[in-house]
Amino acid sequence: MTQKFVVANFSFRSCRKSFSMSKQFVVALVGNPNSGKSSLFNMITGSRQHVGNYPGVTVERKEGHCTHNGCEILFVDLPGTYSLTAYSTEEIITRHFLLEDGPDVVVDVLDASNIERNLYLGTQLIEMNVPLVFAFNMSDLARRRGLEFDLEQLSRLLEARIVPTVGNKGQGRDALLDAIVATANEGRRPRVHSVRYGNEIEEELACVEAIVAQRAKELADKYGSRWVALKLIEQDDEILAKVRSREVLDVVSRSVGHLRSIFHDEPEIVLADRRYGFISGACQETIRNSVERRHDASDVVDAVVTNRVLGLPIFLVLMYAVFWLTFTLGEYPMRGLEWLFGRLGTFVSGLWPEAGHSWLRSLLMDGVIAGVGGVVVFLPNILLLFLAIAILEDTGYMARAAFVMDRIMHKIGLHGKSFIPMLIGFGCSVPAIMAARILENRRNQLATIMVIPLMSCGAKLTIYSLIIPAFFAPHWRGPVMWLVYLIGILLAVVCARLLRLTVFRGETMPFVMELPPYRVPTPKSVLIHMWQRGWMFLRKAGTVILGISVVLWALASFPRPSAEQLAGLNEEQARQAALEYSVIGRVGRFVEPVIRPLGFDWRIGTALIGAVAAKEVFVSQLSIVYAAGSEDGADVLRRRLQANYTPLVGFCIMLFSLISTPCMATLAMTRQETNSWGWAAFQFIGLTVLAYGITLVVFQVGRIWL
Length: 706
Fold this sequence. Notes:
By secondary structure, the protein is α/β, with parallel strands linked by helices. The chain is built from 31 helices and nine strands.
């Protein structure tokens, strides 16, 4: 199935208007995945960066800026890509930015320890004749492997400045910025050396280039006639669609046919071979291996962590350690936040007598403080989880986890790469669904998207962080949380298998994945990754959760029963009667017969309804229902949960929350990525029915056994 991606016309040159310094440059950072590009970006820009999405698509866009020698430099961290063909969304976005937005300098970040593979993208940048700087990143690793570079000679051959860097250690920053400024001041220059493709291809290129210059002059002037000719011979769909001249297309067709008859292969493949030939020649002249190549530490570690027998147990043990640390270390700062919100509640309640302005007091106490505070207190747990995931990602272990899971994924009919979006789903389902684009096969992509909500995202962690300490002893908290996460993974595996046997039948493509070398993550890089994700959670708490909490408070507060209806009731009984009389109470009573077989009452039912908007709202709604906005609100809420429910019910709450009804943002992303509300509805209904069935069995069987 052909996918169409739209990249809106968005120019970063407008950003220059906001700069106040004498010179302003826009710099594009490109590079292969695992080349250390993000570390380099963080090293240069630090906290002065912004994360959003590219207009028209959902791929993440990162921008950052810095000043150097009187110049203001805006860095745009483009998606990692191995080439500039127009196949994947990342390739389309990167190429579109380089061609249409015209950055002043393009910095190609290469893994210096694997230079020949990384330079393939560099040859395509050379063909585009953009102002280019090469950052030979991880140069320390290259030295340890015995690689010695004649950078001066290689720079002359590539006609671009080359700067050795170590992004995760902050080495090479000033030299790289010097090279960027110098290259930007020089601008685009004609090249002396270019990639040569052999006589047969060069002859056909000359023919196509000549007709392009005549009959497609607008394209030739904009992109360069040789580059357009190359793309036409490669049968690039995007460039072919821009050609309006039948004469040009006829010449291209004849040239492509002629090259096929000579090489008995597609011209695109032959051109790729010649690019690698250019790279090999340049490297042979300028790179020397000073020691005999031998297995390094990465190979030794991989022999253990990717072992067919040991790989999966090691992964499960690491995940268990992550969850144990999340609760053990997170308990202390969480208590501090509970104390802080408790003091805030006491302060607010003392601003006016309870008898006066009772609705406003209730709004602040039960709506804002209980609703938002009930979620924010779990920020330490979320930050610790994201910190652990960032460490595992930056060390290179997550790639090994996907490799280990490949054997299992193939048995259920999925590509090994499907595990990568699932791992991302531990943070948030929305970017995880976006990450499913790395799967080339459409059936694999759809099956993966359908099961991603079964991963326990950061929002669900707030529910677990409330329920687990309320019902389970400290020594059981890590194991219970590990079990919930494991259930999600196992259910995703089973559901994916069923989908691939029924709805998405078809063959699975072989799994090929690069295993990057292990690296020691820097505190700066890890903290930036952790804080970016944590800030998204806080921003959500301060906007979406706040708004929903206020709405839920209103639904839980109005209409109010008359004084006669509350006559003879004590304070607690009156509060419960007023809650049941409200809109939310009536809705809860309406759904209670349906959820009662699961062990849930109308209070849990209203919280589950609120969780459809955002999973964190489950905690907010329970805080509102139980009026836990006072001092030590989280402790009050846990004590009231303990008084009303059993540990079995608590476990069933987590189980239902794990499986059921993805949040609205996830459904919207599913609709966008599948281009169908039908698939979004299938996901919503299917997971809700599955959650009901499994929770029903667990509760009913558990009630008999326990």
